[in-house]
Amino acid sequence: MSRHVIVGKGAVGTTLAHLLAADGADVLVLSRSGGASAGRISHAAVDATDVDLLTAASRGADVLYNCASPAYHRWPTDWPPLWASLLDTASRTGAVLVTAGNLYGYATHGAVMTEDSPLDATDSKGVVRAQMWRDAEARHRAGDLRVTEVRGADYLGPLADTQAMAGPRFVDPLLAGKVVRPVVAVDQPHSWTYLPDFARALAAAGATPAAWGHAWHVPTAESLTMRELGERFAAGGPAPRIRPIPAAVVRALGLVSPLLREVAAVSDHFTQPYVMDTAASSRVLGLVATPWHVAIAETLGRTVVGGRA
User: Are strands 154-156 and 41-45 parallel, antiparallel or unpaired?
Assistant: First the structure.
């Protein structure tokens, strides 16, 4: 019987925990606040930046998953010590380290992103994420640990939280026929990763030796603009009314809001095509993306007629 340890109980970590438990694994979820244990999923309160505590909690684990999510505006300060602790724990325990990554490390300039695209981002968040992978890759190549990174786009799904661009703050008012006021542009092609696909890719990467030492993209359905995504969610209901907040207003609000300041700093993610290719990861991980009609229905808690075909 396999044992898995997940650091972080946000949308990605929780979705992954449910998936692993449903497959018969014992799962320990670590977070600063802990949680209620049930069935095969146990929770414990652990400061993951403390490598001794994290190592003790991870002893005997087959796979250690990094699904932590520091505050958006604190990545440059919060990620380095947490990542160092995760790398050292993987080295000490021998567990495969699988990290839930994103696309911030790429400076795409509108190009389709592949796993071979250079990690040449210049904004602070992208620089941090790129360096995290470089550090991990170097230690993997040195034989110090086994690691892989699974990179998802902006996510959506049944457990998406208020941090998600296409989460409840977008879907709920849209379905109620209200005006939706996103803080980003809405008319450029954009990749959107379905949370259950993210979890399946993380689990597959941890169990696939051929995936170790490399980064992979979550198998993700075809890109949609945010406006097109809204139309998919609203099908059969009121026509979506999506009116983005002007970029100048977002920048002005960023003078007093650290979160909006960071959103403004990566506005290119929505003002130009932001699309990733997932063909390579589908081959290596043996997965395909959930079709849009299924992802939308499941996100809304509806039964899908005809299954996932």
Answer: unpaired
82 three-state secondary structure: helix
Look up residue 239 and give its two tokens: 């026509």
CA nearest 187: which of 227, 156, 147?
227
Residue by residue, DSSP assigns 33-47 as: S----BTTEEEEE--
Q: Which residue(s) pair with 96 in the sheet? A: 63
DSSP tag of 189: -
Write down how long the chain is. 309
Note if the pTM is more than 0.90: yes
Element (H, E) at 179: strand 179-180
Give the Cα separation of 213 and 147 in Å (integer): 6
Q: Which of 226, 148, 241 is nearest to 187 (CA)?
A: 226
β-pair partners for 194: 156
Q: 59-114: per-residue pLDDT in tens?
A: 999 999 999 999 988 999 999 999 999 999 999 999 999 999 999 999 876 789 99
Q: Please give the helix or strand (H or E) that residue 154 lies within, else none.
A: strand 154-156
Task: Answer whether 192's CB lies under 8 Å from 153's CB.
Answer: yes
What sign has the CA pseudo-torsion 128, 132, 133, 135? positive
